[in-house]
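User: tokens in, sequence out, please.
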């Protein structure tokens, strides 16, 4: 097993993993990512990093992470957006190895924490994360603006900025 950074040429594999993960989460209809957009944000703008977990040099899973910032800690953290190992390769320690790899990056860079979210119904993943020593942030809820609400609010801010 090896862990390495994904390359631009592997964008189709990254998207394939994302679709597989979405199907597992029963949310495949939510995936609207395109290779062009992914290329822009992952390899041109470099706003996130993709790691591949490989067996015999073949990618069998991935983690996608990016930096966030903790105002209370005064330091950056790493946020794992996606962590996925294909079903035939689960139970071999590959998911743990990916999280350990991200955590080692965080420790070496002086980050304050590593965070991610998990669907409430995903008991196998929740149990796995708890075995690693992770804990749920029970008193916190994730909020999201997207689609029309995001555009409406984003357009108002843009308009207000132009009039000041």
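Assistant: Sequence out:
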């Amino acid at each position: 097993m090896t862990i390495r950074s994904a390359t631009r040429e592997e964008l189709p594999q990254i998207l394939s993993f994302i679709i597989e993960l979405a199907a597992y989460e029963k949310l495949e209809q939510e995936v609207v990512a395109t290779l062009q957009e992914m290329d822009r944000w992952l390899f041109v703008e470099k706003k996130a990093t993709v790691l591949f977990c490989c067996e015999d040099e073949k990618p069998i899973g991935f983690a996608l992470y990016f930096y966030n910032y903790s105002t209370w800690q005064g330091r950056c953290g790493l946020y794992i957006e996606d962590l996925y190992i294909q079903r035939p390769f689960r139970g071999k320690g590959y998911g743990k190895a990916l999280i350990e790899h991200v955590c080692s990056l965080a420790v070496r860079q002086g980050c304050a924490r590593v965070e991610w979210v998990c669907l409430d119904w995903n008991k196998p993943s929740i149990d796995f994360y708890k075995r690693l020593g992770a804990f749920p942030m029970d008193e916190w809820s994730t909020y999201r603006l997207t689609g029309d609400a995001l555009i409406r609010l984003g357009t108002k801010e843009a308009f207000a900025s132009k009039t000041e």
